[in-house]
Design a protein that fits this description.
CATH superfamily of the largest domain: ATP-grasp fold, B domain
Structural class: alpha+beta
Helix content: 25-40%
CATH class of the largest domain: Alpha Beta
CATH topology of the largest domain: D-amino Acid Aminotransferase, Chain A, domain 1
Shape: globular
Number of domains: 2
Distance between the termini: 31 Å
Largest sheet: 7 strands, antiparallel
Number of strands: 14
Order of helices and strands: EEEEEHEEEEHEEHHEEEHH
Number of helices: 6
CATH architecture of the largest domain: 2-Layer Sandwich
Strand content: 25-35%
Bound molecules: uridine-5'-diphosphate
């Protein structure tokens, strides 16, 4: 599909308008990798393809389980066609174990298990380094137009976590935490953006080996190999599930 007018270029993706449909956009996945608010920059060959493939697979899996997403179809190895949503300026993080910023802020050992999944909101503002916001702050500051949306987003997020935990476990992976972004399309909330090792912490279940962007953030090496391993395990599981249903 021909890329049309560039609407937006982010750290990992470009978003193009599609000329024949004003309701849809084309997402192009780049090879760039950034961390720490883009203060650390890198890239590896085919990263865009791997992240597009994993994102599409996760969106498809969720759609099969009744969760609406912005994904419509894969267009090429790096492009997917999506509904053009009005993005909600929040990053929603779900944690199944404590790692990264929350573990650090609370002085807890990284990897600590928690009894129930934890949900956190961050205000999507690059110039403020995406600060943590409480539900009260979201309401009081009018970050979301309709207050009932917060409830919908929370319910949807926990449901997504439930489905993904099952899927990842079948693939011998553990979904430690992940970040989601939601958008509004025709008054419905859709899961948008991407779902990839750039935005999720994914550990190998048996060994605890870390396979996600922390390898890049913390200079552990084997970034490409780890992303490929996630891709391979998730696709194998997807295929097994599809074969089983035939
Ligand atoms: N995350 C993300 N984009 C961000 C911040 C976080 O995709 O701007 C993801 C991150 O990869 C991890 C989860 O959200 O899977 C939780 O990140 P955390 O708050 O622990 O921050 P970090 O340690 O990544 O700074």
């Amino acid at each position: 599909m021909k890329e049309e007018k560039l609407l937006y270029e982010g750290k990992g993706k470009k978003i193009f308008q599609i000329s024949h449909s004003k309701d849809q956009v084309l997402l192009f996945f780049k090879d760039d990798l950034t961390a720490y608010q883009a203060k650390k920059k890198g890239a590896f060959e085919n990263k865009g393809e791997i992240c597009r493939k994993i994102s599409s697979l996760i969106f498809k899996y969720l759609e099969k389980n009744g969760i609406e997403t912005h994904w419509i179809e894969d267009v090429s190895s790096r492009q997917m066609r999506c509904f053009k949503t009005e993005m909600i300026p929040l990053e929603v993080v779900i944690r199944n174990r404590l790692a990264g910023s929350t573990a650090k802020r609370l002085g807890l050992k990284e990897g600590q298990r928690i009894e129930e999944a934890l949900l956190e909101f961050y205000y999507k503002r690059d110039d403020l380094d995406d600060p943590f916001v409480s539900e009260e702050q979201i309401k009081q500051l009018g970050l979301i137009k309709n207050k009932s949306l917060i409830k919908d987003i929370k319910e949807k997020s926990f449901l997504i976590n439930k489905h993904l935990q099952v899927f990842f476990k079948r693939a011998n992976l553990e979904l430690v935490d992940f970040k989601m972004e939601f958008g509004l399309f025709k008054n419905k909330i859709l899961l948008a953006d991407e779902m990839s090792p750039d935005s999720c912490r994914i550990w190998e279940e048996k060994t605890g080996e870390r396979l996600d962007k922390d390898r890049f953030r913390r200079n552990w090496g084997q970034v490409k190999e780890s992303y490929q391993k996630i891709e391979c395990l998730l696709f194998k599981t997807w295929k097994e599930l599809s074969d089983f249903k035939k």
